[in-house]
Structure formats: C-alpha cells, structure tokens
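Extended Data, panel c. Modelled sequence:
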Amino acid sequence: MRRKHLEISDPEVIEEILSKSEVCRIAMMDNDRPYIVPLNYGYRDKAIYFHSSPLGKKIDLLRVDNRVCFEIESYSKIIKGDKPCDWGTKYRSVIGYGTIDFITGTDEKIKGLDIIMSHYGKTGSNEYSEKEVANIVILKLTIDEITGKQK
C-alpha cells in the first residue's frame, strides 16, 4: 500500500468492516476485461457467503475461473471544500482476493442462507422450502488475502 498511514493494520477493525457492512462487490474476469457485481452477503469464520440464481453471467464466469477480487466499504462520506482540491472523502474499506466455491449440499446451503440472514440482523430460526433451497446457488468466498484502508 502506497499510503501506509491510511492502512488498517488492526485485524479487529477489518473484522468489524466485514461483519457490519451491507454490500460486497466481487470482480471476475470476462475474457480480457473485468466484470464487477454488487451483492448482499453474510460473513463468518473468514468466509463471505452469497446467494444467487443458478443462471447468469456471474455464475458462468465463476464456473470458468473462480478467482475473485472483492471490495467492501463500511463508511463513506464526501467532505466538501471551498476549492475543488480541498474536497475529499472519509471512508473505511477492505479489498481482498479469494476463491469462490459453489455450495451444493442442502444442509450447507441452509447454513449459508442462515449466515446471510444473520448478517442483516435476522434472529431466531429460519424456514426455507425445499424448492427455494433447490433453486438457488450459495457461493462461498474463501479469503486468501485482505487489506484495509481508512481516512
């Protein structure tokens, strides 16, 4: 990281960003160009879980190459100034790399759905119909490396 004074080196702060944010963007390769999508997610035990339709460009790309880059921000605010060069941004974010696995077993899919629901504040038990579980894909992103930055 070029601006070391902005780096988040405290693992607890990185965990807080992962645990409390609402949107994760994942970037994949589409032949010779990047493709990025924002997703709702759940985070637990150094892994990020997503739910998805079993069809679509994201799924097609991940079946070819499951390596991804991801970005999550927990805070962002534009700071206005009198002159254009006085403007700036306050933020906290993480960027990382990892691999996506397709979760196929019913019990593991339900576990992934429960992690996502819990991430957004759902408490108690959840009920899913067999059809609902059968018709979705759960993606598990295992984090290989991660860095954080704040200003």
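The mean pLDDT is 92. This feature is highlighted in the accompanying rendering.
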